[in-house]
Specification:
The structure is a homodimer of 287-residue chains. Chain A is of the alpha/beta class and 287 residues long. Helices cover 41% and strands 13% of the residues of chain A. In chain A, strand 1, helix 1 and strand 2 form a beta-alpha-beta unit. Chain A is globular, with a radius of gyration of 18 Å. Chains A and B meet through loops of A and loops of B.
Chain lengths: 287, 287
């Protein structure tokens, strides 16, 4: 077991965690100042500052990426909609490459129109087929530029509007089907409840090469007051994070621990200094 | 396929659907008046009127039960806590028998103390073991009085505080392990997202005897604004209910369609006449 008590070598900040307080250039500078060596930024945050400016800032500060958020959103009810999604994913792959990300995270999408409040289909099997086809359509480009794609299974409560891949088993099956260049982003918040989790992490890590491309952490609060923006700081909820980390490490994972906390009424309202200080402490003590 | 356009023979009202408006004796009378021939009442609603009075009312009106809500809540961090749960489940079995319910629905419980806001353990595997042991401990009594037990897999968003059995596969595995007298309550709201759903319904129905003890319906809204009390009326959400019903029927299910809608800000605030009228119409048109 690595010793997390003395350094933060394995800590990465998903930049959604302080997105309410700071723009991305500031987040990078503040992480550098605190010895946090990695982040995972979102496309809209990058666009707000400028891709080249962010790439330059990363080089200057030595901050690495643990992933790039995000591609996906493949299902659509028309061929044109599916093509638009594929084109957008190709651009996301290129951006990820410019930023030297180790992977592009895929939030695969749900039922067409659901997220926009204009449901176009209730056929979740068709949506899942669109996801497989969509990943298949971008995988060659991703491999040609050397950008691994990481499917992030989302909690089943997002099956309708954000991602119809909701288990590690489903993500592993897609990797079986589509082959190399594709792996999984394991987010504790989304998968902690799964009775097959340990086995499916082993399956992903035991593949050759390993499919364990990313590991995201935060905590599940009881009660959870909002489906999207009430995630907890590590240690404040019910997830046995040290056990999950042990499973990841036993399966060979040696990557970053990316802290991703959406928290409209708590952490997004606090002083970002306090947020990052707490993240560092809880990463050490409670994950 | 049965014809639902001409009668409501297969409609049952889970009495939580109008619990904010009417007490249970009134619900029974109102259902009888409308030709709704079945309900599924909750223990607290029965207790509020009196078990014997409800049993008498059911006989007088000819209203049947499609299930009795509910037993379960097995996990505890002490032997005393686990025994208390088992004793309470035995009483629930006896009440279900008095009311001539076709099954006692089990909401199995989550992490000890989580629902009470006093988390005592993060060990979900231990909670799952408590569930298996707890059901095992009451099954003989249930069989001796002839009361089938129906495990209700709850949506994974309730894994921490309400039920750590969250998939049909897990419920089927418990049935495999514990044997006859045990089956499953399939609730569309909880399981609609599951990529293995069709297969696991087939597995449950194909067992001898069938494990398909109950079928609950409502709809998943996008957005869902509350984890517990924002369920939708059939047709207002994203679930392909006709497809689920077809899977149930193909697997041999011939029981009631129990409508169970928790809706603090919508249906619980409406005139219960309108709620039941809408339930009847949507049962016919959208499920």
């Amino acid at each position: 077991m690595r010793d997390f008590s003395t350094d933060h070598r394995w800590l990465s900040i998903n930049t959604a965690t302080v997105r309410a307080q700071w723009k991305l250039d500031r987040i990078i500078q503040e992480c550098a100042r605190r010895g946090i060596r990695a982040i995972s930024p979102w496309r809209d945050q990058v666009a707000a500052v400028g891709l080249d400016r962010i790439a330059k800032l990363l080089r200057e500060t030595g901050i690495e990426l643990s992933g790039y958020c995000r591609g996906g959103m493949f299902p659509a009810s028309t061929a044109e909609g599916r093509k638009t999604a594929i084109d957008d994913n190709r651009r996301a792959i290129d951006e990820a490459k410019t930023l030297e990300a180790p992977c592009l995270v895929l939030v695969v999408g749900g039922l067409p129109g659901a997220l926009q409040g204009q449901l176009e289909s209730k056929d979740i099997r068709a949506a899942r087929a669109d996801v497989q086809d969509g990943i298949g359509a971008i995988l060659d480009h991703a491999k040609s530029v050397g950008m691994p794609l990481a499917i992030e299974p989302l909690h089943p409560m997002y099956a309708a509007d954000r991602a119809c891949v909701n288990t590690m088993a489903h993500a592993n099956a897609l990797c079986d089907e589509l082959g190399s260049g594709l792996g999984i982003a394991v987010d504790a918040y989304h998968v902690w409840w799964d009775p097959d989790l340990e086995r499916e992490i082993e399956r992903a890590g035991g593949s050759s090469p390993s499919r364990l491309f990313a590991y995201h952490i935060c905590d599940w609060l009881v009660p959870t007051t909002d489906l999207l923006t009430d995630r907890g700081m590590m240690g404040d909820g019910v997830i046995d994070l040290p056990m999950l980390r042990a499973w990841m490490e036993r399966a060979g994972f040696r990557g970053m621990h990316e802290v991703e906390i959406f928290s409209a009424n708590n952490w997004w309202k606090r002083d970002p200094d306090e947020v990052l200080m707490t993240v560092k402490a809880r990463h050490r003590e409670a994950s």
